Each structure stands twice: as C-alpha cells, then as structure tokens.
Amino acid sequence: MAASLLLPSPFFNNCGSVTSFQHSSDKLDGMKDFERELQELFDEVKMMIMMGNQNDAIDLLQANYEAVKERMNAGVRGIEEAATIDIIALGYMAIGDVKFVNALLDMLNEVVDSLKDDEPLLDSVLVHMGSMYSTLGKFEKSMSAYRRAIGNMESIYGKNSVFLITPILGMAKVLSSIGRTSKAVEFYHRAISLLESSRGAESEDLVIPLFGVGSLLLKEGKPVEAESPFLRIFDIYKKLYGENDGRVGLAMCSLAHVKCAVGDANEAISLYRKALQVITTSNYMALDDSIMEKMRIDLAELLHAVGRGKEGRELLEQCLMITEKYKGKEDPSSATHLINLATSHSRSKNYVEAERLLRTSLEIMGKTVGPDDQSITFPMLHLAVTLYHLKRDEEAEQLALEALHIREKAFGKDSLPVAEALDCLVSIQTRLKKDDEELLEQLTRVLSIQEREFGPEGEEVMITLKKVVFYLDKLGRKNEIFPLQKRLSALGMKFKQRIQH
Questions:
Q1: By C-alpha distance, which of 2, 166, 169, 167 is closest to 83?
Q2: What's the pTM?
Q3: Do residues 29 and 122 both lie within one domain?
Q4: Domain boundary residue, one of 319, 352, 371
Q5: Contact 124, 167 (CB under 8 A)
Q6: Domain boundary among 91, 126, 154
Q7: Is 66 exposed, middle or buried (0-12, 13-18, 19+ CB in 10 A)?
Q8: Within 10 Å of residue 456's Cβ, how many Cβ atoms?
Q9: What distance in Å separates the CA atoms of residue 462 and residue 447, rounded to the nearest whole number?
C-alpha cells in the first residue's frame, strides 16, 4: 500500500505513514500488483470526493466492499482483505459515514486479530485503525491499534527507526485526548528524539511534536516549561523561511500565549501585534481566516484585561469590518462581533452604543437562527442589562422575560441557563419594586438550580444565599434567616481558605 494512497482531506492527512507504506512496498515485490490496484481505487475515490461526486465514490466503495465480503464469507481472511477493508473504511471516513465506518472497523478487527505480527502492510493498517478509532472517540481501541503497530515496527526495524514516528505521534494525541498528559509528553519527546537523530535538530518535521508538547504543558499550567518547545518552533521556521514568513507569525502567536500565561501581558501584546503584522504582510493567510480572527479576538481580550479598552475595540471593529466585507453584513459571525463590541462599550459605560450594537446583532440573529432559538437569548439578556443601566427598566424586564421563556422551552425549567435569566430578571424587577414574595420565590428557584449544578458550596450559591437572606429579612421572616446566615458564615470561611491556597 503506497504512501500516495492517502486521501487529501484533514482526516487522511493525519491518518497514515509515508515511511511505513513505502518501506513495506519496497520490501515485498510480490504485493506490488495488489498495491497498484489499491492505489488506483484510492485515487479514483479521492478524485470523486474532490469533484463532489460523493454518490459515485460510495458506489465504487460499496462494490469493493461486496467483493471483499464475498471473499471473507468464503473463508479468505488474510492481509489483502484487511488492507482492502482499511482503504474502504478510509473512504467512508472521508465521506462522513461514521456508522458504516464503525461496522467496517469491527470487520477489520476480526481479520487483523487473526494475522501474525510479521504480515506485510499490517503496521500501516494498524496505524490507520488507530487514527480512525481516535477520530471516532474510541480511544482504548485506538491505543490498542497503535500499541500493536509500535511493537511490530520495533521488532522489525528496531526501537530507533524513523518508521515509528507516525504511530508514536498518534499514541501521544490519544493520550492527550484522555487526559494522560505526562504519558503523552513522554511519547512526544520520543518522537522528537527519533526525528532529531534521523533528520537533525532543525528539521521542520519537529514542529508537530514540539507543538504537541508545548500545548500540553500550557494546558497543564506549566507555561515556563512550554516556552522552550515554542521557541524551538520559532527558531526552526525563522531559519528555514526568514523572519517575515507567516509560519514565523504563527510561532509568535504561540509564544504570546506563553507570555500571557506567565503574566507578562506587555510582551504578549507585542508578540500578538508582530504576529498579526507578519501574517498579514506575508499574505500567508486570508484576512478573514478563522485563525487570524481568533488572534485578533485574543489580543482584544488581553488589551481589555490590562485596561487598554480603546485598542481592544479597534481590533474588534476590524474583525467586524473584515467579516462584513467578505461574508456580508447579515452573516451570523457579524452578530458575534457586534456582541463583542457591545461588551467592550459596556465595560466603558458607553451603554447607548452598546444598545445599538446589540439591537443590530438581534436583528441579524432573528433572520439567521430565528426569534425563538436559544442562542438569541445571550444578546437578549445582554441588552436587558444594558437597558437596566440606561434606567429603562420596563423594556429590560420584557427582554429578560422573553429570554427566560425561550430558555425554559429550550433547556427545561430547572436548567442553569434558566437560573442565569431568572437572576437577571430579579435584579431588574427589584428596581421596579415588584412583590418581594415573588422575588424571593424566584431567588429560591435560582438557588435550587445552582446547588444542584455547582454543589452546596459553590461561589454562585453563596452569592444567591445572600440575596435570599436579604429578602427574608425584608419580609420579616427572622426565624428562617439564622440557619442561612450560619451556612453563609461557614461558606465564607471555606471560600477564604480556597483563595489563600
């Protein structure tokens, strides 16, 4: 099975091993005709998918499935059957027929389990199985396939073979997905060592495992350790492509994440700005690329966090302008940028402009997702709070009630989103001097939901308890206050201890 059999899709770009396939092909001349047939099948399926002829691709895959199934029913279950099913499964994975891929993998497992470890092409099939299982979220089965592939390759090529890199990286990715970080880091470091010894310390191939290690360390709250692998990526790209290449810009972005995590906000801001400039001037990415957009938003959030809201707003305005230019003013992503801008203006107490932006976002969402979709309740509640700040309490109440009803229908009456809407409504209705008994009843409902979702000692629970005590006192229900105050006192002590530790 030659390396070029891999389909050019996001899944296939990560599921195979060039060296694994090619080595098997060179070693086993007797299988070259079979490999050529698989190559032709794969190329044909690949072309059909690229041209949008999905039905034709399915017909071709199904015909091959029926043929291999017939051979298996006749008792033939060798490596050729396994390799064919593997190709068919990869094809259906590219098409997106997950249910049938699961059935094919079950079928493939039966064949592979009966094969000896020294079968030609088996390592490649196992690597593909590991990748497909990982994509389907079946991590134990994925690790089992990768483990066997690694064991086979080690016994055939030795523990320092470059052919091991693909299954080792696959195993590292799976371990990361299930939270076994320290073990995943071990596998990434092993891949790094193998690549360094075979391709040199400045090989671009090192970027993937280095990025994997850096990202895991950041996620684990170890930014100081994460800086080293990200710096190596930066140096590799800079040496290979020059300091003005877009890849260098992406490496700068990773370093900005590190600086932000260690608390060096000014350096992080500087790196973000340089990264955006390099990527833009090099035309490495389109202005409306989602990665570029996220970088602008991340930088805007950081600028707001350090009190540089005006600079942050400029970036958010840029995001909105780019989206409107390339996708149109009524694209759903425009609504997101409008909401972000409204949040920025609210922070600066510019509630009039925040109101305008939120009403525009609601108009867009009303057309794209519909007036009763739960996603519309976020800007709706945001607008309610904005109107509250503008002392337009009746309008604010109506919006909060509408958001509450939509959320009750979408999530259920005892859900956390409903509690959030109720809490907002109580704040508005308090100033409208609504009945205290009704307000207390709503707060009790909020408290019940929060206790179930966050536990009896959650910070949110403590805040709501204080509100409940306030209304009990206002209503003169003194006998109900004492146990709640006692509970509040205990919660306050625990919360202080948490902050100290």
A1: 2
A2: 0.82
A3: yes
A4: 371
A5: no
A6: 154
A7: exposed
A8: 12
A9: 9
